[in-house]
């Protein structure tokens, strides 16, 4: 199983960014995919997840700002992030089952 997150970068506060996670080596459509993030000096935290039936959950601080979606044909999960804040700065990872992808760095400048 391989997961690859990409789409990170530098953005100003209030801006938007879309992260993508491409998966291979598993039955993608039946698995819940989650986005986590880890800021320097902090523990990795769950940001959002999306189930096989596209039910979603969000961490409180991103509700209303982030949207997770999936495309089972392309085997990708997306995290649309809007109204970004400096505190959203972190390395973002996607995860399914026990498998983690390499992270992508999001930096939000004030």
Textual characterization of the structure:
Helices cover 0% and strands 54% of the residues. The chain has 110 residues and is mainly β. The strands form 2 sheets. Strands 2, 4, 5, 6, 9, 10 and 11 form a 7-stranded mixed β-sheet that branches. A 4-stranded antiparallel β-sheet has the order 1-3-8-7, with no helix packed on it. The protein is globular, with a radius of gyration of 13 Å.
What does this entry show, briefly?
The protein has 110 residues and is an all-beta fold. The chain has no helices and 11 strands.
Structural class: mainly beta
Query: What would the principal axes of the Cα set say about the shape?
Result: globular
* Beta-strand percentage range: over 45%
Mean pLDDT: 96
Sheet with the most strands, sense and barrel status: 7 strands, mixed
The helix content, as a percent range, equals under 10%
Distance between the termini: 37 Å
Number of helices: 0
Q: Count of DSSP E strands?
A: 11
The low-confidence runs, each spanning 5 or more residues with pLDDT under 50, are none
Strand and helix order = EEEEEEEEEEE
What value does the Rg take, in angstroms? 13 Å
Main attributes?
110 residues; mainly beta; 7-stranded mixed β-sheet; 54% strand
List the helices and strands and how they pair.
Elements: E1 2-6, E2 9-12, E3 17-24, E4 33-38, E5 45-50, E6 56-58, E7 66-71, E8 76-81, E9 90-96, E10 99-100, E11 104-109
Parallel strand pairs: 2-11
Antiparallel strand pairs: 1-3, 3-8, 4-5, 4-9, 5-6, 7-8, 9-10, 9-11
């Amino acid at each position: 199983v391989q997961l690859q997150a990409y789409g990170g970068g530098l953005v100003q506060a209030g801006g938007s960014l879309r992260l993508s996670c491409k998966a291979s080596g598993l039955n993608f459509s039946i698995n819940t995919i989650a986005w986590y993030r880890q800021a320097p000096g902090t523990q990795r935290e769950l940001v959002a997840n999306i189930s096989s039936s596209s039910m979603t959950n969000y961490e409180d601080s991103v509700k209303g700002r982030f949207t997770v979606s999936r495309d089972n044909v392309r085997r990708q999960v997306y995290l649309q992030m809007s109204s970004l804040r400096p505190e959203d700065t972190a390395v973002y990872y996607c995860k399914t089952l026990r498998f983690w992808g390499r992270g992508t760095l999001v930096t939000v400048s004030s």
